């Protein structure tokens, strides 16, 4: 079931990546705001599929004790990727215009899609066995030679159809989200953290570009996000400390899973987040050198990366076989909250007086 699910998810992600690539074209050529809103919505739906499903695919493809490293790389996609994109696109928008942001994004998503089509191998074991059987048939010239798995599939009355697999894949994350306390509270906390990230992102242009802030242009405001990008990168290189601690705990537990051991570094990350936010807020005045709040943002980014990654790994260890469905529910909430918070962030800062 896991192999079939992984194959289905990878196929859907290829389709989603292609849609994300295609819909950059009307965005780059958009004549009005209506076109931008509609195409951004469709592109967002397509782009959300890889973000939601990749964590589950990792839990399917790697054993529990081996998934920490791949999950650490995946964690950079939601913590290092967004601020680094703002670092790059700030100067693109300033020097070439906003349309070129979508042209560049189209080139990148198209290149990634081609790379995935060429490089992603087949992972379903039954397909691999059937291919091996065909090769052996050709070598031995025996047409009746078949893989054992294909023989079992041919006579299995309970074999699940594609529609049933779709139904399970689409509904199980919601069942976990609303009936499993671990999934529910992980989703709430993860969503809250991601909301903080996007509230923070909206604060950067106010601190480094508003009338009361530092006199940065659009490109320089993008560079101000560099601290948010460096923080997760540093935390990523420290992650082996967490992994060694986890493996020691598993070895001491006779090889059995210890989900709470995944949260060891999260204790430090959870402390970094409020400290860095106060640091950023107290140093956001024009009278304070601009590097000081940027340094604070790097600690915020590191704390966010550590805690979010710990939550994802904790969910994987807690549910094991069904971790893909639980992760999909957690990441769905995270993405929805991340999209919602920027809608009111600027108004909130203005009403509260962000200084």
From TrEMBL:
<keyword id="KW-1133">Transmembrane helix</keyword>
<dbReference type="InterPro" id="IPR020846">
    <property type="entry name" value="MFS_dom"/>
</dbReference>
<feature type="transmembrane region" description="Helical">
    <location>
        <begin position="182"/>
        <end position="200"/>
    </location>
</feature>
<dbReference type="GO" id="GO:0022857">
    <property type="term" value="F:transmembrane transporter activity"/>
</dbReference>
<keyword id="KW-0472">Membrane</keyword>
<feature type="transmembrane region" description="Helical">
    <location>
        <begin position="100"/>
        <end position="121"/>
    </location>
</feature>
<dbReference type="InterPro" id="IPR011701">
    <property type="entry name" value="MFS"/>
</dbReference>
<feature type="transmembrane region" description="Helical">
    <location>
        <begin position="220"/>
        <end position="239"/>
    </location>
</feature>
<feature type="transmembrane region" description="Helical">
    <location>
        <begin position="288"/>
        <end position="312"/>
    </location>
</feature>
<keyword id="KW-0812">Transmembrane</keyword>
<feature type="transmembrane region" description="Helical">
    <location>
        <begin position="264"/>
        <end position="282"/>
    </location>
</feature>
<feature type="transmembrane region" description="Helical">
    <location>
        <begin position="72"/>
        <end position="94"/>
    </location>
</feature>
<dbReference type="GO" id="GO:0005886">
    <property type="term" value="C:plasma membrane"/>
</dbReference>
<feature type="domain" description="Major facilitator superfamily (MFS) profile">
    <location>
        <begin position="1"/>
        <end position="355"/>
    </location>
</feature>
<dbReference type="Pfam" id="PF07690">
    <property type="entry name" value="MFS_1"/>
</dbReference>
<feature type="transmembrane region" description="Helical">
    <location>
        <begin position="324"/>
        <end position="345"/>
    </location>
</feature>
<protein>
    <recommendedName>
        <fullName>Major facilitator superfamily (MFS) profile domain-containing protein</fullName>
    </recommendedName>
</protein>
<dbReference type="InterPro" id="IPR036259">
    <property type="entry name" value="MFS_trans_sf"/>
</dbReference>
